[in-house]
Amino acid sequence: MFKKILIANRGEIALRVIRTAREMGVKTVVVYSTADEKSLPVLLADESVCVGPPASNQSYLNIPNILSAALMTGAEGIHPGYGFMAENPDFAEMCREHGIVFIGPTPESMRALGSKAGGREIAAMSNVPVVPGTGVLDTVDDALLAAKQIGYPVLLKASAGGGGRGQKVIRTQEELAKGFAQAQEEARLYFGDPAIIMEKFLEEFRHVEVQVMGDGQGHVIHIGERDCSIQRRNQKLIEEAPSTLPDTLRQEILAAGVRLAKHVNYAGAGTLEFIVDRDGNYYFMEMNTRIQVEHCVSEEISGLDFVKLQLEIAAGYGLKLQQEDVVLRGHAIECRLNAEDPDKDFRPAAGKIDDVHFAGGPGVRVDSHCYTGYVIPPHYDSLIGKLIVHHDTREQAIARMKRALEETVIQGPKTTIPLYVKIMDNPFYKRGAVMTNFLKTRMEM
Questions:
Q1: Cα(6)–Cα(70) distance, rounded to whole angstroms?
Q2: Which end is more exposed in the chain, N or C (fewer Cβ atoms within 10 Å of the end residue's Cβ)?
Q3: Which residues contact 356 (CB under 8 A, 6 or more apart)?
Q4: What string of DSSP letters covers 136-157?
Q5: Is 0.90 surpassed by the pTM of this model?
C-alpha cells in the first residue's frame, strides 16, 4: 500500500480522500490555492503545499506546480478527486513519466472512453445504443450538414467536456452558423480542447448512470445504478440509488455499462451515463473516468468504500470483489447543498457562513468541508456539502431526507435547501416521475 499520497483537489472530495487514507494508514499531502488556506482539508491533511493563487489555471490546474509538490513531499501517488485534473489523460501520463501513480484509469482508457467522440465509437463496437450524432466536427459547414441529417434541435458538446459544461442547444440553422465557432472557443477555454461533437437533442429524458469498478486487467463489476435526473443547467442537484426503472431495463443498462468498461480494461472507479426516453429506450451518453460527486449514494446501498477500492487497485492489490459479492440494500438519496439562490436562477452566493448545523440521526450522512466562520470563495463551484440519507425503501428515504433538510441550518449565504424541501413534497417526485426538465415542468419556482 502507498505510504503517502497527494490529493490534487479541494473541498469536500479532498476531505473525503483524507479520511479514508487516514483509516488505511496512508499519509496525505493536500495542495491548495491561497483562497483555500483555511479550508478543512488543509487543516486535516498531514502536509499541505500552496500551489498558486485562487485562479484555477494557476493552482489546481497548474500541472508543473502539482507534480513538483508531489516530488518534493515524496508522494507515491496522486488522487485527482473529481473535476480539475481528474479526467486529464495528459496529466495522468505525466504522473507516470515522473514515477508517480495516478490513482485512476490509464491515460489510454481515459482517451478511449473519456472523450465523447471516442466513447461513441466504443459504444458502437460494444453493441450499446447511442443518441444519433457525429464524431468530431472540424468546420461549421460540417456541422450544418450534420444538423440537416440529424434534424433540429441538436446539441453541441465539447468532446473533452464534463460536469454539464461545454454544451449548447441549437434549434435553428442560423443559431448553428453563429454558435459553432463560439462553442469551439468555449471548449478550448474550459477543457483545453476545441473538439466539438453533435447529438440529437432530446427535450426530456431520465439521466441514469452505472457505477463500475475495474482492476485494469479486464475484471469489471457494477455497483448498481443511480438516477440523477433532477438538474439545473445540465448539472445534477439530487441523486438517488437505485433508480425506479423497471428491473428488466435496469439489468440491460447495468450490463451495457460493464461491457463498455471491459472494452478498455478499465481500472478504478468510473461511471457510464445513459439517457432513457419516455418509451424506455436507453442510449449511452458518456463516461466519467473518475470518482463521482454522487458516489456516496452507491456507497450507502452497497456498504463499500469507493476511495479504499481506488487506493487498493492503484497500489496493485487488484479488485477482489466479484459481482456476486455486491449486495445492494435499501434506498439512498443525496442532495447537493449549494450556495446558490434558486429564486434568482441559481445565482452563486459566495461569502461567510455565519452559522452551520448539519442534520444527524440514523441513516444520515454529511460530506462537507465547511464550518461556522468559513468563507466560501467565489473562484470555484458553489458546493457547501452533500446531505445523504439511507433507508429501507424509497418512500422512507424521502421522509428521512425531508427531516434532515429541515434540521440542517446554514446561516449566511442563500442555499438550495428550501428548494429541496419542496421537491421532497412534490407528488411527481414521490412517485418517481422525474425527467431532466423536472424543475421547469413540475415545480413552481
A1: 6
A2: C
A3: 370, 371, 372, 374, 409, 410, 411
A4: -B-SHHHHHHHHHHH-SSEEEE
A5: yes
Would you place residue 413 in the very low, low, confident or very high pLDDT band (cuts 50, 70, 90)? very high
**DSSP string of 373-441, one letter each residue:** T-EE-TTS--EEEEEEEEESSHHHHHHHHHHHHHH-EEESS--SHHHHHHHHH-HHHHTT---TTHHHH
pLDDT for position 267: 98
- Rounded to an integer, the average pLDDT of 212-226 is 98
252 and 169 in a common domain: no
Between residues 124 and 407, the one the model is more confident about: 407
Q: Which residues of 309-329 are buried (b: 16+ CB within 10 A; e: fewer)?
A: bbbbbbbeeebebeeeebebe
Task: Please state, in angstroms and rounded to a whole number, the distance separating the CA atoms of residues 53 and 197.
Answer: 34
261/303 same-domain check:
yes
Considering the domain architecture, whether residues 163 and 251 belong to the same structural domain is answered as: no
Cis geometry, peptide bond prior to residue 242 (ω within 30 degrees of 0): yes
Residue with cell 504522473: 95
Q: What is the CATH number of the domain that holds 35?
A: 3.40.50.20
Beta strands in 242-296 (DSSP E): 267-276, 282-288
Question: What mean pLDDT do residues 366-388 have?
Answer: 97
121 lies in some domain: no
Task: Give burial (CB, 10 Å; 0-12/13-18/19+) of 60.
Answer: buried
Q: How many CB atoms lie within 10 A of CB 149?
A: 9
Residue 56 lies in domain: 4-103
Number of residues that this document lists for the chain: 445
pLDDT over 80 (residue 183)? yes
Residue 290 a catalytic site member: yes
CA pair distance 223, 299, nearest whole angstrom: 9
Average pLDDT value over all residues in the chain: 95
Distance set, CA 119 to CA 46, 106, 213, 289 (Å): 38, 15, 17, 11
Residue 139 main-chain phi, psi, to 5 deg = -130, 165
Residue 81 resides in a domain: yes
- Whole-number Å distance between alpha carbons of 341 and 362: 29
Lowest mean pLDDT among 48-62, 108-122, 142-156, 415-429: 108-122
pLDDT confidence of residue 139: 95
Same domain, 361 and 241: yes
Which among 290, 336, 394, 400 is annotated as catalytic? 290
Segments in 8-139 forming alpha helices (H): 11-23, 40-44, 63-73, 89-97, 107-109, 116-125
